[in-house]
Amino acid sequence: MKQVNKSIPKIDGMGLAKGKPAFTDDLTDSNAIIVKILRSPHAFARIKNINVQKAVKYPGVECVFTYKDVPRNVFTRAGQGFPEPSPKDKFILDEYVRYVGDEVAIIAAATEETAEQAMKLIDVEYEVFEPVLDFEKAENNKSIIHPEKEPYTMFPMGFDPKKNIACIYDMHVGDVDEVLKNSEVIIDKIYYTQAQAHVAIEPHSSTAYIDPYERLNIITSTQTPVHLRRIIGEALGMPINKIRVVKPRVGGGFGGKQQIHGELFCALVTLKTGRPSKCIYSRKEVFESSFSRHAMRLNIKIGAEKNGKLKAIDLRILSDTGAYGEHALTVFMIAGSKTLPLYNKVDAVRFGGTVVYTNHTPAGAYRGYGAIQGNFALESAMDELADKLNIDPIELRKMNMIKEGETSEIFKIMGEGGEGTAQIIESCKLDYCLNRGSEMFKWNNKYHKKQINNDKVRGVGMAIAMQGSGIPNMDMGAALLKLNDDGFFNLLIGATDIGTGSDTILAQIAAETLNVPVDDIIVYASDSDLTPFDCGAYASSTTFVSGNGVKKAAEKMKNLLISEGAKHLQIDIEDTIFDGKLIKSKDGKKSISLKEISKGWLYYYGQGQKQIIAADSYVGKKSPPPYMAGFVEVEVDTKTGHFNIIDYTAVVDCGTTINPKLALGQMEGGLLQGIGMAVYEDVKYNKFGQMLTNNLMNYKIPTREDVPNINVEFADSYEPSGPYGAKSVGEIGIDTPPAAISNAIFNAVGVRITDLPITPEKVLMAIKKKEGK
Amino acid sequence: MKINLKINNQDKIVEIKPHEMLLEVLRKTGCLSVKHGCDTGSCGACTVLLDGKPVLSCSYLAAKADGHSITTVEGIQDKVDQIGKYLVDEGSVQCGFCVPGLVLTVIGMEKELSNPSEQEVNHYLSGNLCRCTGYVSHIRAIMKYLEDKK
């Protein structure tokens, strides 16, 4: 392999470093009018009266919309494929407001100042209701968050809004209760995971304008341009052939930009005024009025024999989807379907629970997507089992974990909102990941608490994890290659690079297939008018799904070149080969270069004049999981509870790394975001449902001074169904830190923190409690 | 009101409002590398050099910059090429949104600290947040850059 498994520089890297205008706000018409949103100060209320007359008359104001002025079409902002597995429970604007920050009115004005001044002139009278702020009390609460009649789901998911239930799911294999009853050892625990904010450094940004063909053009910072076009059409009741969505560079996504944000507001304003508009969220709006990770309560029971052999796992979850149900069902299911198959040798397994509405900021897609929550419970409980049985945690995993050539019934039972897809695991190097990680980390020397001085103790913990590679039989990635008149290619892809480097690795895959330099592949991506279909950047799909699409298109291109070359050379196609530079007969006696055939024969007055284009697409028939093992060492101050993360070692099986440096970046970034969730980050509300952590001073993401020694290695692995052996690497890195760090704290000081984030305060309180103080 | 700014070595008279922050004024003059990230001076994406020293333009009144010299990456493309090469080679330009601000802070650091340790570099740059990379590739790139520069 010449072009893949090679760390070429990211193709847009230098341009971005040099600050070239590339992001939505950089590409906005300088005359764009400014769109601002009046947002609810109440967690739950009904708008009794709203008077916008004074605002409308304010000089410089272009238009104001309330719920009375916009189409009342119910939809979901989730940004998923169709039919959507999320409840359709959102209106562009509604008479009910369901969380602090929910939209009340849209206002557009010549300047930001004017819009903000005029916004103050909107009189709103609210009927305020008792909000539901404790997700454990949401079900059957007397406050019904969605009392309206329109919401529905596109397939059965237990949707019961009168009970504040967004969805219910249950599955089982075998008789869990019976197996647990007969198990020699049982771990029975409850864990809590918190809401986490995405904190992409670029805020949600969109702009809209009408082009000379009188079509609505939207440039926006999105992970899902194609789905976005469909959803905008649905919400506005407008044919989507009138809409173009362009994704420029995106300043970080992490799932946060899978959902739609200001796009609809810009669309409404531009359609009404005919003028370009832009909507850039403030950081406060990004925190309060976009999406966060689903907070969960996870009840887990593990039954095992005394020798460590697992017999049964029972995982029941309650999930908080906030005011709207974006990704309610799918995140919930992934908490089981991308954790439980790790231990595929149990006699019985059960998974289920409920996703409830509350008056919190809605939850949505977030890197890890349920797997990180499920992993915290499962891998913490496994550590508790190891402790109880006095077995080394690594050995306990090795004894029970999935191996290459095996399967899990869960793959078939649980999919993305519905049934799954059976698959045999063709690549799984978890055993290597554990062995190599343990060796790099010097686990055997460290796995017993180490007293540093009177107050400080070190401990170690570990966890394993899996994710997926796209959504099989649902999501598609397509690619189109166009040969140009000097023998170079345009690669048009719907795939959505949000900073991950997917444009680069997809160019590498095309270059590898055609055996041409990457410089001869010119990438253009994510423009709904020009690029072919792609589901977008979510579900760890791009390398695997879009990558396979690119490979297929490039193979077609190669065949076209061979066929055109054969015509020119007047030889049989079967006797013709293309080596990346020359199209030639197998004996090499007749040949023409790619440059020559492109210039003379195909495009400029040659006898074979013809445009050469190849397109193809790929839909996964399976979703091969990447796997990893994570190891962490912490140093705890037993007097204060303060702890430092000393070292995080990860060994990852993501199949072939198409670009090892970029894959490493995904892993390192994912690990630190996971560490953030484990120990720093927490979306907090006061008793009125107002978010306390609505800026970067109160919501702490890790800085570069918080970074431990991070060591990542990749296992030598090859996934037969992946492009050149690749699986995914975008999400897997985030999954292990919560459990591994909690396990390390336990190893150091003998206390187990079961609710995230693990703060020094919680550690100290637990130490005091243990000491009986 | 009008103020005098030397933006990337060009003298400009700029019309501003008294309460406007330097960030918005610079973006209006075409310095689009200066990014709006957080509104609270917490993320560093809006960093520019004011008389050679890094400042957060989102919380620096434009009026206060009257008579001063401002540098953004638009004005020092060759220098950015040198540092950027190391960042790109290490894969540390992911979404790239924070990178112009980071590069300017690195330039500020070079003037203030001679031969800084890894810890000192991380401390100096700690106001430049990045959510993509985990910072690990940043420090690899910057330490290599500083080493090779010697």
Under CATH, the topology of the largest domain in chain B can be stated as DNA polymerase, domain 1
By DSSP (H or I, 4+ residues per run), the number of helices of chain B equals 5
- Give, in order, the helices and strands of chain B: EEHEEEHHHH
Name of the CATH first level of the largest domain in chain A: Alpha Beta
Architecture overview:
Chain A is of the alpha+beta class and 773 residues long. Chain A folds into three domains: 13-129 and 204-280, Aldehyde Oxidoreductase, domain 3; 295-471 and 622-770, Aldehyde oxidase/xanthine dehydrogenase, molybdopterin binding domain (Aldehyde Oxidoreductase, domain 4, 2-Layer Sandwich), CATH 3.30.365; 476-619, Aldehyde oxidase/xanthine dehydrogenase, molybdopterin binding domain (Aldehyde Oxidoreductase, domain 4). Chain A has a seven-stranded mixed beta sheet with strand order 3-5-1-12-9-10-11, sandwiched between helices. Chain A is globular. Chain B has two domains: 2-74, Roll (Ubiquitin-like (UB roll)), CATH 3.10.20.30; 75-149, Orthogonal Bundle (DNA polymerase, domain 1), CATH 1.10.150.120. Chain B has helices at residues 22-28, 77-89, 99-112, 118-124, 136-149; strands at residues 2-7, 10-15, 47-50, 53-56, 68-71. A five-stranded mixed beta sheet of chain B has the order 2-1-5-3-4, with helices on both faces. The longest helix of chain B has 14 residues, at 99-112. Classes of the chains: A alpha+beta (773), B alpha+beta (150). At the A-B interface, helix 1 and helix 17 of A face helix 2, helix 3 and helix 5 of B.
Write the layout of secondary structure elements.
The complex is a heterodimer of chains A (773) and B (150).
Chain A: H1 13-17, E1 33-39, E2 45-51, H2 53-57, E3 61-65, E4 96-97, E5 103-109, H3 112-119, E6 123-128, E7 165-173, H4 176-181, E8 185-193, E9 205-210, E10 216-220, H5 225-236, E11 243-246, H6 263-273, E12 277-280, H7 283-288, E13 295-304, E14 310-322, H8 328-337, E15 348-357, H9 371-389, H10 393-400, H11 409-413, H12 430-441, H13 443-446, E16 450-451, E17 456-466, E18 476-483, E19 489-493, H14 502-514, E20 521-525, H15 542-569, E21 576-578, E22 582-585, E23 591-593, H16 594-603, E24 613-619, E25 627-637, E26 643-653, H17 660-680, E27 709-714, H18 737-749, H19 760-770
Parallel strand pairs in A: 1-12, 10-11, 14-15, 19-20, 26-27
Antiparallel strand pairs in A: 1-5, 2-4, 2-6, 3-5, 7-15, 8-13, 9-10, 9-12, 13-14, 16-17, 17-25, 18-19, 18-24, 21-22, 22-23, 25-26
Chain B: E1 2-7, E2 10-15, H1 22-28, E3 47-50, E4 53-56, E5 68-71, H2 77-89, H3 99-112, H4 118-124, H5 136-149
Parallel strand pairs in B: 1-5
Antiparallel strand pairs in B: 1-2, 3-4, 3-5
